[in-house]
Design goal:
By secondary structure, the chain is of the alpha/beta class. About 40% of the residues lie in helices and about 15% in strands.
Length: about 425
């Protein structure tokens, strides 16, 4: 008789086994590093022989600078020291000239995590999941870890156990609290603090939108902003999507993902050659996507965070591709309810499939003229974007108050 394990359970058991293997591997690696330092043969580890810092930020990628920049500016404004540690050698933070915020490159990949394992800090803010699961272990010299939310969507969409070992996770909607508490119960994990502190990167985008000069009269514009990889729009639809977009008669902006331009040249270069820029079609490669977002009347993208950034900040409809979502590797597997993301997308936009691609113009026109989409977008804003305009300030307040609490207690009780 064969033993049957359903795919969800199999995925969970696989994740647990990988987690146990990773924990053992990095325990021995950590012991090796400590021995090297004891005998003086190892390289300097950031924070190993430095004084404890009250506040630190760790980011594994430069793409999160838009999330942390407003927070750094709050600490700079208040004259409080903040150590910003990044795993990207070209992080924009490294070029900023702050008086109180110190930005430092700590190496890429495992080297960055190894340094973070020895950090000395009271409060660490990060958007990187997986603390104390794989490479990134909790430092015994850090008192409090705070995960900063970087998307208006479900925290359950992280891989399993991604947030379990943070001391606090910032949230921006009540449904996120409900999900995290349910995951804690299913994992038998300790309850975290879940302060409602909003979304600093979206606040910053909204401020730019509100302060920007009004756009001159222009023709209706559609922005195609695909991501990369097997589920990217160009992988699924090829050049056909541009054929349909050009048939609409609208102005079309195509903004390929930087990774597509770097690693999917065999895919994108023939399309760009077939559809050269000019007249109705515009190819955009700006580092900053703000201008093309505000120029667009409709956004077309795939399974990407830009969908909610665009819809909720600019309050305009979106067209998204249908992507199969396997809950198996993610914390969503533990939840019985449908994820907020998948309940909300059909209300604020239209789903694009190979079958309805010929109806693309009708879908765009419906988004432009049907007021029900505007009402749905406003409802989504209230559900997933709390503390609008105040997030960075509130996060700084929370970190400062928590640091005071931690350092006021006797060291043995901290």
């Amino acid at each position: 008789m064969r033993l049957y394990i359903d795919p969800g359970t199999g995925s969970m058991l696989f994740t647990i086994l990988i987690g146990l293997f990773g924990t053992g591997l990095y325990f021995f690696r950590g012991a090796k590093v400590r021995l090297r330092f004891l005998f003086g043969g190892g390289k300097k580890v950031a924070g190993n022989d430095e004084a404890r810092v009250p506040f630190a930020i760790f980011t594994d990628s430069k793409r999160y600078w838009n999330l942390f920049e407003p927070i750094c500016e709050q600490f700079e404004k208040r004259g409080l020291p903040m150590l910003y540690l990044t795993a990207s050698p070209d992080d924009p933070a490294l070029d900023r000239r702050f008086e109180h915020v110190t930005a430092r490159f700590v190496g890429e990949g495992n080297r960055a995590f190894a340094q973070m394992n020895f950090l000395k800090a009271d409060v660490v803010l990060s958007s990187t999941p997986g603390l104390d699961v794989y490479q990134w272990k909790r430092s015994k010299d850090v008192k409090w870890y705070v995960h900063i939310a970087h998307g208006a969507n479900d925290p359950a969409m992280y891989r399993m156990f991604g947030l379990d070992f943070y001391d606090a996770v910032t949230v921006s909607g009540d449904y996120q609290i409900q999900q995290l508490r349910e995951i804690e119960r299913k994992h038998n994990a300790p309850a975290k603090e879940l302060p409602m502190l909003g979304l600093p990167h979206m606040d910053a985008l909204l401020r730019r939108a509100e302060s920007a000069e009004p756009l001159a009269h222009r023709e209706t514009t559609v922005l195609l902003a695909p991501s990369w990889g097997p589920n990217g729009i160009f992988r699924r639809f090829g050049a056909k999507i541009l054929e349909e977009l050009l048939r609409t008669g609208y102005h079309i902006i195509v903004r390929p993902h930087p990774q597509t331009l770097a690693t999917e040249k065999e895919l994108i270069e023939p399309i760009m050659a077939r559809f050269p820029e000019g007249g109705q079609l515009e190819w955009n490669r700006d580092n900053d996507n703000f201008e093309v977002l505000r120029r667009a009347d409709v956004l077309i993208s795939d399974f990407s965070g830009i969908i909610f950034d665009y819809a909720l900040v600019f309050q305009r409809g979106v067209i998204y591709t249908d992507v199969s979502y396997d809950k198996g590797p993610f914390d969503a597997w533990w939840l019985d309810e449908e994820l907020w993301t998948f309940e909300t997308l059909p209300k604020i936009g239209k789903c694009l499939t190979p079958e309805n691609l010929p109806e693309l113009k009708n879908m765009i026109d419906e988004l432009l003229h049907d007021p029900s989409y505007q009402a749905a977008i406003e409802k989504a804003r209230t559900e997933t974007w709390s503390c609008i305009g105040r997030s960075a300030e509130l996060i700084a307040d929370y970190a400062i108050q928590k640091q005071k609490e931690l350092t006021a207690a006797p060291e043995a009780d901290a």
